[in-house]
Amino acid sequence: MSSAIIYPTIMCGGSGTRLWPLSRALFPKQFIPLVNDTSMLQDTLLRLPEKSKEPVFICNEEHRFLVAEQVRQLSQSQGTILLEPEGRNTAPAVALAALNAIGKDKDAMLLVLAADHVIKDEKAFHQAISQASKAAQKGKLVTFGIVPTHAETGYGYIKKGIQQAEGTYQVAQFVEKPDQAVASDYLASGDYLWNSGMFLFKASRYLEELAKFRADILEMCEQAMAGVEQDYDFLRPNKSAFLACASESIDYAVMEKTDAAVVIPLDAGWSDVGSYSALWEVCQQDKSKNVLKGDVIAQTTTNSYIHSQNKLIATVGVDNLVVIDTPDAVLVANKDKVQDVKKIVEQLKVDNRPEAVLHREAYRPWGKYDSIDKGERFQVKRITVKPGAKLSVQMHHHRAEHWIIVSGTAKVTINEKTVLLTENQSTYIPVGSVHALENPGVLPLEMIEVQSGSYLGEDDIVRFEDRYGRA
Questions:
Q1: Is the pTM above the cut of 0.85?
Q2: How far is CA 453 from CA 219, 315, 352, 429, 447, in A?
């Protein structure tokens, strides 16, 4: 049997609410370097099998430039970034990727991965993929079941059935998250695996089974891909067709119903890093079983995860704590209660507070900005523009702006006038002026922006022209 070509499909959705305040809705955990110096998305890319085709990334509108930039940082080919008009769970998302793949290769094999998993043993991971590939070529829909290390109540489980070829087992049952007693029974029995949400199957076989059990989902996805549009570096399925699609997971839509489902055990140091306690477990601990990130001094401190992004954190005589400092928020929690961090995010959303969604530092396709100070009628930002990048041609109804160049060169257009500004030079943009900012140099442009006016919201932007498709 010839080796089929694997098309990685990387699911980049999710908001990582239990890792707040490090993770926010517009900059969630998959884009953050939590375990090492690269982000979790980048780690996912770096451990793909060598002979894989270029990956397909499935993400939403807000995260599209983050995906593109993080792939660019690895100097890898960007692959395909497929934008969901709105989240509809995994069954429709993977259907879009499968339809896209068989348009290129009728025998395409989809390796469906999440962008926010940790897998420490790459050799074992690749070996499992190789075994799964053999089963998938025979028409099986393979899911990867994690060999459990403890009685976990935060994961769903898969019960193994009769052993099959290629080291796989029939899927006897998918089980929802159990309570502690049931999870302990599962662990003791040896018959259960954690449900990882990772899959390998022929794109055509997945679509066949989806047509059998959820033809309505397939029909809407086919309509969405029939109307797909290329937008800059992104593929946009037809919005109205996709919004008419039901929201359903692969497990519910297909895997629990098909007789082709098999599971392959994976023992590779896997974690979905769904909480700070899980993050503490996968990170390197010191002799006091602490994980210390950033500027931290810990005296008589044990079993704790302490992460500083902004200022010195000092602890004395504490145990089993999570302490997180970011420029705009501090979290202190008992490590045994970190599953409840999501309740903080829920409260922030109810109160309509920006800390649920935004970091003080926000990323844009042209670079980033840091809101370093804000008052009733003013706001100060530190802006970084990448070499060759340009902000949109825009206008504000309610605010004026002062720009002070700290380093680099700025090409500034205000109405009909264009000038070059360098270090220590500044300019003023009156309310209502059409203006643009560009970095024509080869070094990053650093500048300070002082906004003043009656309304300083990010939605006070009228875009006339934008190379990133936002106008």
A1: yes
A2: 50, 42, 22, 12, 20
Do the beta carbons of residue 344 and residue 409 sit within 8 Å?
A: no
> What does the alpha-carbon distance between residue 137 and residue 127 come to, in Å, rounded to a whole number?
16
* SS3 per residue for 17-53: HHHCCCCECCECHHHCCCCCCCCHHHHHHHCCCCCCC
Report the C-alpha gap between 44 and 47 in whole angstroms.
6
6-271: what fold?
Answer: Spore Coat Polysaccharide Biosynthesis Protein SpsA; Chain A (3.90.550)
Question: Tokens 């709105």 label which residue?
Answer: 86
Q: Which residue has the tokens 């875009």?
A: 463
Alpha helix positions (H), 192-330: 203-213, 215-226, 239-243, 250, 276-282
pLDDT score of 447: 98
Contact (CB, 8 A) for 233 and 77: no
Assess contact for 297 and 312: CB atoms under 8 A: yes
Domain boundary assignment for the chain: 6-271, 279-345, 361-465
Please give the pLDDT value at position 72. Answer: 87
CA distances, 284 to each of 75, 299, 393 (Å): 28, 18, 46
Residue 432: partners with Cβ closer than 8 Å, 6 or more residues away: 395, 396, 397
Beta pairing class for 291-293 and 305-308: parallel
**What parts of the chain have a pLDDT lower than 70?**
1-3, 471
**CA–CA separation, 151 vs 182, rounded Å?**
8
What's the confidence (pLDDT) of residue 61? 86
Measure Cα distances from 324 to 36, 66, 277, 289, 433 in Å. 17, 23, 13, 17, 41
Architecture per CATH, domain 361-465, reads as Sandwich (2.60)
How far is C-alpha 39 from the chain's CA centre? 9
